[in-house]
Amino acid sequence: MKSYKFARRNFLSWTGAAVGLHTLLRNTEAAAQGMMSPQRLLLIHHPVGTVRPLWLCQGTGANFTFSPLLKPFETAGLRGDMIIIDGLNMDVIPGPGGGHEKGSVLLATASPTKWTRTGQTETDDPMAAGPSVDQLMISKLPTLSDRPFKSLQAICDDRIDHQEISCRCLTYDLTTQPKPGINGSGAVENNAYENTPIRPYLKPLDLYNRVRIGTTVIVRH
Fold first, then answer.
1. pLDDT for 146
2. Of all helices (H) and strands (E), which one includes residue 117?
3. Angle of the 204-212 helix axis to the 8-30 helix axis, nearest 10
4. Neighbour-count burial of 58, counting CB atoms closer than 10 A to its CB (0-12 exposed, 13-18 middle, 19+ buried)
5. Which of 48, 59, 95, 158 could form a Cys-Cys staple with 64, CB 3.0–4.6 A?
6. Within 10 Å of residue 181's Cβ, how many Cβ atoms?
7. Distance, CA of 164 to CA of 169 (rounded, Å)
8. What is the pLDDT of residue 129?
């Protein structure tokens, strides 16, 4: 069993990196004073569900009351930019995969799954059969072609049973890679493929270094 205790030194360094990342992004935007803030798409996902009564909001349309779990979005002033959706049923979409695992891939790609991964203790970890929506948007927006980085992926906790990828990854590239897969009938197909997973950063220091490379920060005194 892997230990998840953080060494004090590592914890402090990771925390410091997270603060540094925030400062770097803030200063980078401050350098573009007078310019309109760029539009962003932020995806936050909790792959194994949550406490439903704490998720559900009261009311309909724009006149709703934020639930306890979504309250931070109201505090951030995002009410006018949000639509709360509930009741999506992905069980009716065909394709192999476990409940959490398949749901995560469908949420990210909107593409029915075709195969699950081989070589794992369980056979319910689906391979993505299409790119994730964020990567599709990037490919269609030429204004992003000159950016030092087009998207960032981060994860807060990568503990998962059987080392499944689908519950730890929400981004899949347009490129595909050949890989043996198990079809819905349980047979192995050697000519299967998957859209390449873009694995998220777990350590804030690694994410900070990813942003820092190729980014110019202007500090005004």
1. 63
2. strand 116-117
3. 30
4. exposed
5. 59
6. 24
7. 9
8. 96
CA distances from 105 to 15, 124, 137 (A): 30, 12, 17
- What is the distance between the alpha carbons of residues 198 and 206, in angstroms, rounded to a whole number? 15
Q: Tokens in use for 202?
A: 């777990």
Contact call for residues 159 and 5 (beta carbons, < 8 A): no
Helix (H, G, I), strand (E, B) or coil at 53: helix
pLDDT at 13: 47
Which pLDDT score is estimated for 193?
96
pLDDT at 99 (0 to 100): 87
* Nearest C-alpha neighbor of 13 from the set 209, 144, 213: 209
Closest CA to 170 of 217, 104, 118, 214: 104
| Spans in the chain with pLDDT lower than 50 | 1-16, 19, 215-221
Q: Which residues of 2-12 are buried (b: 16+ CB within 10 A; e: fewer)?
A: eeeeeeeeeee
Q: Give the pLDDT score at 30.
A: 57
Cα–Cα distance list, 92 to 23, 130, 217 (Å): 44, 18, 48
Length of the chain: 221
Closest listed residue to residue 47, CA positions, set 95, 7, 91, 106: 106
The secondary element (H helix, E strand) that includes residue 197 is strand 193-197
Q: Using CB atoms within 10 A of its CB, is residue 186 exposed (0-12), middle (13-18) or buried (19+)?
A: exposed
The answer to whether 17 touches 10, Cβ cutoff 8 Å, is no
Q: Would you state the pLDDT for residue 78?
A: 86
CA-to-CA distance for 91 and 94, rounded, in angstroms? 8
